[in-house]
Amino acid sequence: MKAFDALILGGGTAGCVLAARLSEDAGRRVCLIEAGPDYGPYEAGRWPADMRDALGVPDSHDWRNSEHRLSVARIIGGCSSHNFCAMALPLAADFDDWGVPGWSGAELEPHIGRVLEALPAHRFEDEALHPWFAALREAAAEIGLPVHEDLNAPDAVEGIGKLPLNVRGTTRWNASFAYLDRARDRTNLTVMAETPIDRIEIEDDRVASVTTRSGDRLTAETVAVCAGAYGSPALLLRSGIGPEPELRRHGIEVRADLPVGAHLREHFGVPLRWSPSGEMTARIERHLADRPGFPFNGVIRARSGRCPEGRWDLILLIALFPGPVLSSSVMLMRPRWSGEVRLRSADPDELPLVSELALDREEDSAAAFEGIELGRRLAGTAALSGLIDGELTPGPEATPESVRAGGRDALTTFFHPACTCAIGAVAEPDGRVRGIDNLYVADASVLPEIPPVPTNLTVLAAAEKIAAGLRAGG
Which 3 state secondary structure label does DSSP give 53? Predict the structure, then answer.
C-alpha cells in the first residue's frame, strides 16, 4: 500500500490546480491520479496536435466504451484540454446568489485573480475579428444592443462583446500547462496517469484507502475527488456515498445517504445557423488568408422575459464553423432543466447514466425562442443584408413545439455539466463531503448552481479556493 498526505482523484481542470497548489508545501506528499494519458509538460512537445490546437474543438480523448460515450475529456488537463478557451466571468452578484458562506463574489475575487495570473489571455484587436462577428457587431448596434469592448467588464451585462481566450499563440493553454507544469519537478509530487479508480474505501466515517482498477491501494490523510460532474458522482456512488435506494439497487453498502448525482445542470439550447452569401464567403476567405482562424471571438448576451434586469439568461454563440456555416446558436444560461447522474452498475468500467437534455420546460422553450427571434431580428438588419443566404437550423418554419418534438437531436450544448455533488446538498462550503471527515470534492460538480457563463474560469477559481482551504487546514 502506498501512502501520501494528499490524494487527488482526477487530473482534469480542477485536479491540476489542487496538485500544483498542495505540492507547494514541500513537506506534503501529493499524488495526482488520472484515468487518461499524461503527455508530459508542454515543452516536451508530445501533446497531440488536436488537443493543442485552439483553432478547433477536438473530439478525441473523451470517455467511451464499446456502447457509450461521454463528451468530457479523459486526459491530464481534463475538459480544459478540449474546450473553446473562452475566459468568461460571471457577475459578482451571481456568486452572491448562491448564499454559501465564503463563496460570495467578494470572497471569490482573490481566487479568480490567481486564475487570471496563471492563464495567458489572448485579446482580439478589431482587425482580427472574423467577418461574422464583425458583421453581427454592426447589426447589434443597429437594433440598439450595447456594444462592449470586453464582456468581462463590470458594467457589461446585455449586448455583444469580445471575450479573451486562454491561448498562447494558437495553443490551447489548458490547466496542465498553466498549473501542473510548474509543479512537475517537485519531488513531493507523484503523477499516476492511465490509472482508473475503482472505489474509495470508507471506514468509521473516514477514507481508509483508495483502490485503483488494477487493484493497487493508496492511502492519504486527505482525499480530494476531482473527476468532474459525471465522474465524481459515479465514483462516490460506487464507494457507497449517495441515495440509499440507488446504492441498494446495485448491491452497494451505504456509507453516507446523500443526494449524489442529483441536480445536474448544463448550458444548452437551439442551434441557430445561417448559410453565408457569396460576399460573406469571400470575406471569410480573405480573413483566413491573413491570420489564424479562431472560430470564436465573443458572444451576445441577452435577457428573456423571465430574467430580472441587470442579468442575462441567454447567449447567442457567435462562431464560424468549417463549410463555412455561420452560427448564432441560442444557449440557455439559466435553464430550468435539471437532470441526474446514476450508475449503470457497480462496475467501474461502465460509464454512468446521464439524463438526456430536453427542452421540456415551457419557460425554457419560451426563453430559447425569444433568443431565436433576436437572432432573426439581427439577420434582418442592413448590416447583414447580402451577407447571409438563409436560415439552416432550426429553419424559418420552426416553432417551440416542433423543436421540443425533435428531442435531444434538435438541441446543442456547451458541454458544461455541473452541480452533481453540490455544496449545501452533498458537500460543506469547504468542499468536504458531508459525514466523511477527510474526503473532499473540488470540481464543477461541487458548484451549488451553474454560473451563466462558460464554466472554465469558475471551476478553476473554485479549485483555487478549496485548495487554499486545504493548505490552511494542514
Answer: strand
Q: Give dist(CA 73, CA 75) in Å, integer.
A: 6
Q: Do residues 330 and 316 lie in contact, with contact meaning Cβ atoms separated by under 8 Å? A: yes
Q: Please give the CATH topology (third level) of the domain spanning 126-163+268-334+358-410.
A: Cholesterol Oxidase; domain 2 (3.30.410)
Cα–Cα distance for residue pair 282/317, rounded to 1 Å: 22
Other CB atoms within 10 Å distance of the CB of residue 307: 18
Predicted structure pTM score: 0.97
Q: Taking the C-alpha atoms of 104, 106, 112 and 116 in order, what is their torsion angle to the nearest 10 degrees?
A: 160
137-152: pLDDT as tens digits? 999 999 999 999 999 9
- For 250-286, give the DSSP string: TTPPPSEE--TT-SBB--EEE--EEEEPHHHHHHHHH
Q: What is the CATH number of domain 2-118+170-265+415-472?
A: 3.50.50.60
Alpha-carbon distance of 332 to 316, in angstroms, equals: 9
- Confidence check: pLDDT of 325 > 80: yes
**Residue pLDDT, tens place only, 21-41:** 999 999 999 999 999 999 999
Using a 10 angstrom Cβ sphere, with 0-12 exposed, 13-18 middle and 19 or more buried, the burial of residue 308 is: exposed
* pLDDT number for residue 372: 97
